[in-house]
Design brief:
Strand content: 5-15%
Radius of gyration: 19 Å
Strand order of the largest sheet: 3-2-1-4-5-6-7
Family: Belongs to the short-chain dehydrogenases/reductases (SDR) family.
Largest sheet: 7 strands, parallel
Shape: globular
Pfam families: adh_short_C2
CATH topology: Rossmann fold
CATH superfamily: NAD(P)-binding Rossmann-like Domain
InterPro entries: NAD(P)-bd_dom_sf, Sc_DH/Rdtase_CS, SDR_fam
Number of strands: 7
Distance between the termini: 38 Å
Keywords: Oxidoreductase
Helix content: 40-55%
Structural class: alpha/beta
CATH class: Alpha Beta
CATH architecture: 3-Layer(aba) Sandwich
GO molecular function, one term: oxidoreductase activity
């Protein structure tokens, strides 16, 4: 991993810290686990996919990483995952509530099934709530800690994804802010990440596109040109929030979208003709 282009050669920024990452077996969770481990953290990968989870754990080092099966909709499993981190490494410094699903890609509300809607909220909202609850129980006695939640550009914009997913990510932002207010008195920081779509297995499946096709579609409408959002960009944003550089950042929703959410793309006030660019 040291030779990977997305990992800085700078000093290890999470040396001595312990991180638990839900949804850590693929996509944003996997890459974040690799980045955190490279920067010195002991990483507990929590996921429902046992084979992928064990594979990621083995690729990192059994001395610095472990895997625990965890369905984030089951409180007993979330509680056990936090207990595993504490019993294995003696503490929990960072909780990254990253597990999430998109649900079926049905744009019309009349086509949405109640069961599908509730399943998305169970994983994306209740799962985050449970992760924060049990992480806080481990962090409050020592009066320190960092909780990061994966939201989405859909935490601030509508019409991009399904009703359930948009609703869930708005709720994650609300949970993040409320928890930041409560837990700040114990020295615990709570923030969330809101990336634009990037080519994770979850996103490519939802949009029905391959990675290159999805990236091209996003690049066509993005505000920041010449840069393509990668999963590594999200992982590095999580690294910033988890590290001491962000020690006074709490209650924040960090958009990773190249400015997409701050502009109505139908307005071209500052569009330069090609010959003037």
């Amino acid at each position: 991993m040291a030779g990977s282009s997305f990992i800085s050669a700078a000093a290890k920024r999470l040396e001595g810290k312990v991180a638990l990452i839900t949804g850590g077996a693929s996509g944003i969770g996997e890459i974040t686990a690799r980045v955190f481990a490279h920067h010195g953290a002991k990483v507990v990968i929590a996921d429902v996919n046992d084979s992928l989870g064990h594979s990621i754990r083995d690729s990192l080092s059994r001395d610095n990483a472990s895997f625990v099966h965890c369905d984030v909709t089951d409180e007993s499993q979330v509680k056990a995952a936090v207990a595993e981190a504490v019993s294995t490494y003696g503490k929990l410094d960072i909780m990254f509530n990253n597990a999430g699903i998109t649900g079926p890609n049905k744009s019309r509300i009349v086509d949405n099934d109640k069961a599908d809607f509730e399943r998305v909220l169970a994983v994306n909202v209740t799962g985050v709530f449970l992760g924060m609850k049990h992480a806080a129980q481990a962090m409050i006695p020592v009066r320190r800690g960092c909780i990061i939640n994966t939201a989405s550009i859909s935490s601030g914009l509508a019409g991009i994804t399904s009703h359930a997913y948009t609703c869930a990510k708005h709720a994650v932002l609300g949970l993040t802010r409320n928890a930041a207010v409560e837990l700040g008195q114990f020295g615990i920081r709570v923030n969330c990440l809101s990336p634009n779509a990037c080519a994770t297995p979850l996103a490519t499946k939802f949009f029905g596109m391959g990675p290159a096709e999805l990236e091209a579609a996003i690049d066509a409408v993005t505000n920041l040109k010449g840069v393509t959002l990668k999963v590594e960009d999200v992982a590095n944003a999580a690294l910033f929030l988890a590290g001491d550089e962000a020690r006074y950042v709490s209650g924040h929703n960090l958009f990773i979208d190249g400015g997409f959410s701050v502009v109505n793309s139908s307005f071209r006030l500052f569009h330069y003709p090609p010959e003037e660019a």
